[in-house]
Every structure is written in C-alpha cells, then in structure tokens.
Queue: 4 jobs
Job 1
Amino acid sequence: MRQNRRITTTPLRADIMTIFNDYEAHDALGLADLIRRREVSAAEVLEAAIERVDARNPALNAVVHTFFDEARATAAQPLQGPFAGVPFMLKDLGVQVRGQRVTNGSRFWQDQICTKDSTLVQRYRAAGLVLMGMTSTAEYGLSCDTTPSLQGPTLNAWDASRMPGGSSGGAAVAVASGMLPAAHASDGGGSIRIPSSCNGVFGLKPSRGRNPIGPDVGEGWNGLSVQHVITRTVRDSAAFLDATHGPESGDPYAAPTFSGSYLQGIGQPGPRLRIAFQQVDHFGGAMHPVTAAAVRETAKLLAGMGHHVEEARPTFDAAALKWDMFTIVGCNLLQALYQRARLLGRAVTPDDVEHVTWLWAERCRHRTGQDMARAIGTIHATARAMGRFFEAHDVLLTPTCATPPLPARTVDMRLEDLDEYYERLYGNNTFTTVYNCTGLPAASVPLCWADGLPIGVQIAAGLGHEMRLLQLSAELEVAQPWAARRPARAVSG
C-alpha cells in the first residue's frame, strides 16, 4: 500500500500536466528509491520523463530518436537492480541497442539497425534502467560541438548562442535541462567532460578498460575512447560505475582491479590529498583569464578543506601528442568508413559525411604503418610522464575546457580548412585529450559560473583511481553544491 505518495496534478507549465511533478527534484538513485518504496511507479516516472522530452526537446534538440512504446512495456514489468524503473537514454554513437537505429550522428550510418545489445547496454538493462531513446552526437565523435547535419544542432541548456560541447552534447543537455537525471556518454578526447562543463553537470571519464566496450570490439580509437555517464550528482556517477565496471571475456586489457563499491566509498571520508594545479596550458602558454580564475578559486577551496595544494604541472611533448592523436583518430575513422562501405556494398562519398570527416579520413589515407606506430609510441611516452607525475601528486587540477563555452559553430565540421578546424578543436580540448591518450581517469566538476555560463574544472588522477576522484568530487559537491543551479529552460521550457 502506498503511503505519503509524492504525486500531484499541478502543471509543469500551462500546457503540461503530470501525475509526478516531483520528478526533477530527484537524481537517478532518488527516483529508484521512490519506486522501490512504491511512492511512485516506474510507469509514472517514465511518463514524467516523456513529458519533459516532448516539452523541451523541440527547442534544444538533445534527443534524436525515441522508443517510448518499448520503454512503457519495460516499465510495466517487474524490474530489479540499483536503478530499477529509472528512465535512461543512450548516446547515438558507438553502442548497440537491440532493434534500434544507431546513426553515429552520420548520414552514412542513418539506416543502421542493431541486432543485439552492447555489453554495456546489457549491464544497463540488468541495473533496471528503462531505455527510452538516443541522444545527439557529433558525427563519429569528431567535434567538441554537437551540430550533426543529419539531425541538426543541439543547443546549450544555458545559452542557445553557445556550444553545448561534444561529442556527447545531447546527453549533457538532456541532463542539464531536466529531461533525465543521467544519460550514457562516451569520451575519446573529452566528450563526457567538455559537454558536462558547458552545461553545468558532472562528468567522469573512467580509466581505460574500466567499463566494457564489447562484445564486437576491444577498444575505441586505439584505447582513447571510453564510456560512462553524465549526471547531476556525484553519487549517481559512482552508482553507475558500480553497476557497469569490470572486464568481459576477450578484453585486450583491463583497468586495475577494483573490488569495492564506489557508491559506498564516497560516503566515507577521503584522505587529505597532494593536489597540483596549473596556471598555464600543457604547451606552457597562458590560460584564458576566466578558466584560470576558476582553477585558482577551486585550489583555494581545496586548500581550505585541508588538502595540500601547490602549483605544478606534468611535462611531456605536447606538440607531438597533438598531431599523433590526429593520426590515431583519423586512421580509426578511415577504417570505420571502410567497414561501413563494405557492409553497404558501395564506396563512401563526400556527400555521405561531414566535410571535415571526409578531409580527415582522406588526409590519413596517406599515413603509413610507421606513422601509426610512432603515434602509439607518443601516447605511451606521455603515459609514462603522467605516471611519474602522479607518483608525486595525487590529483591534478586544470580547467576542463580552455575557454568558457564558445559561440555555437566555432568548431564547425563544415569548415573548408582541416588544419584550421583541428587547431580550433584541439585548442578547446587541450586539457582533456591527454587523459584519453594516457588512459587515466578525469572528471569535470561544475563548480564555477561566469556571466551566467558554467565553467567546469577538471580533476585527474593516476590509473585506476576513480575512487579518489569520486571522493574528492563528493567533498566539493558538499562544500559548493551545484545541483540546484538549473538553466531557465529547465524551468520554463
């Protein structure tokens, strides 16, 4: 029998009625708890999510494909797991969802229907999540903005004139605008952390090998790409990692073994840490004054919390890393296009893909095996340098993005000049990409705002130290809460 049932017929807006108006007051664990205690049903929670997608997505374009009928059927069934009954969406890139279309944000993949679930999707289902749709992505994850020609641009939840970040822009906007408490995302150069920073939400990139990427492939972009979630709260990110982490049969490598609970761990007091912070970029150049100020403010906050804080930065060949990453991504792109073309029985043409996608693949068509071997050697050398740095420091604090959210289409895949495009892309991503290349965990924490825009700060640690980052993020969340800061679109749109 239900008691203290938190449901109402008060409208969200004049044109929206719901039986569960309290939906946005809870994170994913909170919703699961209400469902478990039968204060609200999974079906009612799902309808609240659908109402918000229907009301807000036309203005934001964060969600590009829905399967509400399947979700309703799932919500009507008995569900088990830590997120039983919680609505959830997948990024439209790099996963398989049985019976659903996954386009990778591209015209070339727009007719792709999956015949099975990815291992990660299987684990989401086992956790009790109700899968209800797909969120927007830049084509093949190649941009820090989310403006695919196939589905049109996704808009920043705080300011439509600014980019939402990418490539998981749809996931971050869906969470920031209140459509969902959490959403799946992936990160090959910053694609969880950058949109989290641009939209004022929390995003953890786990260590390489922490979450599964199979069953058909062993790695993405030679190990640069990993998958996890974007959330409003740290505890949701921890609980999702509990639900999904661990190797699967045939993995080429795995993250250091972790046998505890991330969620339980963040409830325990963490150790006082040796925290380094940067006031220059990895090339030694000056940082944007707004992001530099965000780092200084956070360093002061951390020192006040009892951590040892000092200015220091790792040293590695930043120029080599920049262009060897270009080679790794481009060669993987070329292979993906070849595989798709082979399946379709025809060659890829410039009309099939974004202009920058075509130029990048064509440039790397002329790379050699020696070029690729050199590039892999560079990321290994960088990992060694970062490993030595994290022997002397527990955490490194930097901005997430090099600047506040850029004007929309600054990093535009329609640009004619590939080199100009890559300079803009890497210029924004300079603080995030090193952790993809080295496989280390890093998180964007939404601590600062400037001129009404969120400014994420990034914390990173040594391989396998997700717990350290989650504990520190949870401390920061208590010291300077952010979840109540919501864009106007989450209230009025």
Job 2
Amino acid sequence: MRNITTILANDDWTLDVAFDDGSERRFDVKPLLDCEAFEPLRNLYAFKSIRNCGYFIEWSDEIDLSADTLFLDGKSLK
C-alpha cells in the first residue's frame, strides 16, 4: 500500500502528491467537482483545507480520496 508523505493543493484544483516510494504525481480534481459529493470543493478555500491521512486524503464533509486513486489517476511530475 502506498503512503502519502506530502500533499499540496494548487489554485487550479490540482493536487501535487508525494509518496513514500519517492514518486510524485499531479492529480486533477476538476472533473470530480461535477459530482454531488465533491461540490463543496468548488470553493477554493474548502479545497485547500485538505488533510493528509497517510493512506488517503480528506476534506471536511467526509470527502476523501485514496492514495491509490491519486497515484493511478495522477500524472507523473518527474
């Protein structure tokens, strides 16, 4: 299982994610903002209130994404 070491929420609704294996990915959250569960994240302040929980990330309102989703669907930064 991958573990997230750092995460940065960018102004363009992307996430820069670093993993414990040294890999780095950029995950685009914009396509998810049309889903009802992710609608609160349309507010940039809410989007940037992200918390790193190791194997997943979360925002308020019980919105979360797994480390595997971020890795598999993210684009490599290297």
Job 3
Amino acid sequence: MLEASNNNELPVIPGKRYFTIGEVSELCGVKSHVLRYWEQEFSQLKPVKRRGNRRYYQRHDVILIRQIRSLLYDQGYTIGGARQKLTGEEVADDNSQSQQIIRQLRDELEGLLVLLKSSS
C-alpha cells in the first residue's frame, strides 16, 4: 500500500518505542490536528494516552498513519473509502502489514548502509 516513492519523501522512522504527536506529525507529513481527527475516524489508530491526555504513538501507529496518508492524499480515497480499505485488508490479509514493515525496515537499512559507505 505504501508506495516506494512516497516512502522516500518521508523521513526514516527512528528506532524509538514511543513518539509524541509532534514527532509523528513530522515523520508522516501531516499536521497534529489531522492526526487527532484521524483517531476519531479510524478505529485502528489508538495511541497510548498518558499524563494530561498526552498521546504517545508506537512504530505500528506511525506505519498505519503513513498508510492512511497514502490512501487519502496519494491514492485519492475518501475517509470512508480508506476506512473500508484498511478494515477489509486487515480481515483479508493480516500478512500484508508484516510484509510492509519488513519492506520498510529493509529500505531503512539500505539507506543507513549507503550513509555508512559514503562516510568512510
């Protein structure tokens, strides 16, 4: 679902466990108020809430947000269409998300390898 070209435009997801809404906003190219709205529209998107209702997103949330962004902004889906596509894919092919994560990790590692080779 995430196009390789779209992934190259977005920054690499750091190897952290939790991300603030500001960090996710930068990582996904979406403003924070849009992220809060998407939480209401997409039941799969449930960041952990801590002190003072602060949101903390995990890596799988960031990947899901990138999928939603791709569906809405790049592929032209409506909110309802994107919601239907995500729920349909989760039921039909649970393995797809794992493959996407593996693909993204491979891309990130290849990018790191290029950086390491260029610095030496």
Job 4
Amino acid sequence: MFRVRRADTALDGLADMWTQAPSAFRAEITKATDQIDQQLERDPVGSSESRPHGRRILFQSPLAIVFRIESDGQTVNVLRVWSIRRGARP
C-alpha cells in the first residue's frame, strides 16, 4: 500500500476549484478525489500513464492529476490537479 501526499500547489488548486464550483460539481470533485486516493494507494502504476521525468498522469473524471512515485517506493506525491471538464473553472 502506498502513502499519498499532495504538494501545496496541488492542494491549493483543488481547494480553489472546489470553492468556486457549484454544489453538484463539488460532489463530483469529492467523489473523484476519493477514487483517485484509492487508486494511488492500491496501484499507482496500473491506473496511470507514464510521462517524462518520472511523472505519471491519472484521469478520474472530472479530474486529472500528475504525480510521481518517490524514491522510497512507498510514497506517491501528487504534484498538480485540474479539471478535465469543459467550462469548469480551474
């Protein structure tokens, strides 16, 4: 099982997105965040795609994240979070 951490920039982006979203979209963001955490804790490689510089990307509608697995092999660090829904606020 992996530990999930979030960089301050990812936390700030997620908080901004959530506070600016209508309530229905907030529920979707919360659900997607929970699903992302579960996927990252269980199998971060199997549920994501590789990217340059040791980073990976994962899509869980309506969100996408970029993360990396730290050198300890047990920690996933979420670097960036954004909405993949058209017209959604960042």
